[in-house]
Amino acid sequence: MADLTKPIGVDPTGYELLTVAVYELLKQYPGLNKNEILFEELGKSSGISFSADNGALVMTERKTITGKIWQTCQYPFYVVYRTTSTMMNQKISVQTFLDSLGKWLCMEPAEIKKGQYEQLTEYPDLSQGRKITRVTRLNSYALEPNDEGVQDWILPVTVQYTNEIEPIHK
Fold it and tell me: What is the C-alpha to C-alpha distance for residues 14 and 56, in angstroms, rounded to an integer?
């Protein structure tokens, strides 16, 4: 999302691995309290969910004469916080939650409670030659409420990772 380079391919295995890793990482966010972040599942009027945005994308690729491949990849996703509150304080609370979650995912100090900061220190290990190198985010924003007053708030996030593919020599 932050990178304007167009993808040159997709990484289907990376999509599977990153979806599980991001889900596990989001469940560890210390500011969840009693909330739960689900994968592509929201209640009719409330809930927190995350969804992949375009799958896992290959941005660059290099190949050696021996067949080893190095890829830089992205896994863009977004967190959706659904609420029905029309109160200004609640809306600010939702935006503060998403901004704090975004800071934490990007390894920045994030205020969890007034004066209490937490910071993510490492990303989960991935398998099959993949490694998370960085997480970036954009600002959270609100969509227009529907006729019932349900409003979704969005936090766009991108996981950047590398993928090394070793050829099997027989």
Answer: 6
